[in-house]
Design goal:
Keywords: DNA-binding, Endoplasmic reticulum, Homeobox, Lipid biosynthesis, Lipid metabolism, Membrane, Nucleus, Transferase, Transmembrane, Transmembrane helix. This protein has 412 residues and is mainly alpha-helical. The protein contains 16 helices and no strands. The radius of gyration is 27 Å and the shape is elongated.
Length: 412
């Protein structure tokens, strides 16, 4: 007798939750928010053999992301790692440090890099010399740095995906007139039927960026880590939004523009880790030119321009219009930031004649006695570094070491 009321109550609770979700869904997807004026979701329902993009399609990207994570693990272990060995990628030999609870506690609490006055205090507490303290922190920092083989494996996975995505996207979009004339992306919008191949390529890209967010805690954290996270979230937001409101044409142009240069960057990093310097330098110059044209010329003058002006020629502005423009603007800000990093690399390239460090990446600190004397010199005062003072002020090698000491290769 007591089971029926409980069952009924549970059923009422389930109905109530379903009603709340339905109400939330109705509120979130209001036509006045996301669609141009006088356009309804009902007009975009499949009919008479015509198929349109629907928001629930993007859920397919979740299993795709999980499959890509599994594929990445397999690829890095059984393809990328043997390839790194074949290409001669060698991880640096790192000297072990003696365990020191006092220094370890400070290292974990104070973000790894103590100032000189603090190092003097730590030296007195531990009964060590200042140079021993500096050496301990340098070796401790090196322990947390990712090895070259891990960097190579990550870069090779991204290279393979971006290259395949670029080739696949190009084969799908090459014959579309709106790829070459972005203003045509708005022709008959939003009543544009779904291209099945384009849809799956789009969802594959979404799944890839979701997979990058999933593996974020385990990936190498570079100097632009925060900007990368922001880029991934903006990209996922753009893909989900553009698919949901049938903006696949302009969205696919944006995706292809990014794939144009992304695989070049990853290939450049692979060659850099393998010390194929001439190939790395050449590919970096090509990447810089492609990045400049696609991200700083074509993207703002064609994509953002047509999104701002052509998209509302036949309708007034609405919330979804402003939302889309904001996301594109955020993406462009990130493009400018990264191109500034590229310019710094180009300046370094022109000064030194070749790439000597990974783009956006942390650099292993030298543990040789000569480099110790050089790198420690600028930090010591009051006559404590007399022996290394001449080395600091003379020669290109010493200037490079001083540049490292001044923080140009610090970890994120």
């Amino acid at each position: 007798m007591h089971h029926h009321p409980i069952k009924c109550w549970g059923g009422n609770q389930s109905l109530m939750h379903s009603g709340m979700l339905f109400s939330l869904n109705e509120w979130l997807w209001q036509e006045t928010y996301w669609l141009p004026p006088n356009v309804t979701w009902a007009q975009l329902e499949d009919r008479d053999g015509l198929v349109f993009a629907h928001p629930h399609h993007v859920l397919a990207a979740l299993p795709i992301a999980l499959v890509l994570v599994a594929m990445r693990i397999i690829f890095e272990r059984f393809v990328a790692l043997p390839l790194s060995r074949w290409m001669g990628v060698q991880d640096p030999i790192r000297r072990k440090i003696k365990p020191n609870p006092v220094l370890e506690k400070y290292f974990l609490r104070m973000k790894q890099r103590p100032v000189e006055t603090q190092m003097v205090l730590l030296a007195s507490q531990c009964g060590l010399t200042l140079r021993q303290i500096q050496r301990w922190f340098r070796r401790r920092r090196n322990q947390d740095r990712p090895c070259l083989s891990k960097k190579f494996c990550e870069a090779s996975w991204r290279f393979v995906f971006y290259l395949c995505s670029f080739v696949g996207g190009t084969s799908i979009l090459y014959h579309e007139s709106w790829l070459w004339t972005p203003a045509l992306c708005w022709e008959n919008y939003p009543h544009q039927t779904l291209n099945l191949a384009l849809s799956w390529w789009y969802l594959l890209e979404l799944g890839f960026y979701i997979s990058l967010l999933i593996t974020l805690p385990f990936d190498i954290k570079r100097k632009d880590f925060k900007e990368q996270v922001a880029h991934h979230f903006v990209t996922v937001g753009l893909i989900v939004f553009s698919y949901s409101v049938n903006l696949l044409r302009i969205g696919s142009v944006v995706l292809l523009l990014h794939d144009c240069s992304d695989y070049l960057l990853e290939g450049c990093k692979m060659l850099n880790y393998a010390h194929f310097q001439r190939g790395c330098d050449t590919l970096f110059i090509i990447f810089s030119l492609v990045f400049f044209y696609t991200r700083l010329v074509f993207f703002p003058t064609e994509v953002i321009y047509t999104a701002v002006f052509d998209s509302i020629k036949n309708s007034g502005p609405f919330f979804g219009y402003y939302f889309f423009i904001v996301l594109l603007g955020m993406l462009q800000i990130l493009h400018v930031y990264w191109f500034c990093l590229i310019l710094r690399m180009i300046c370094s390239f022109l000064r030194k004649g070749q790439m000597r460090e990974d783009i956006r990446s942390d650099v292993e600190e030298s543990d040789s006695s000569d480099d110790e004397a050089v790198s420690e010199g600028p930090q010591l005062k009051n006559g404590m570094a007399r022996g290394s003072r001449a080395a600091i002020t003379n020669g290109p090698r010493s200037r490079a070491a001083a540049c490292l000491t001044n923080g140009h290769t610090r970890a994120t």
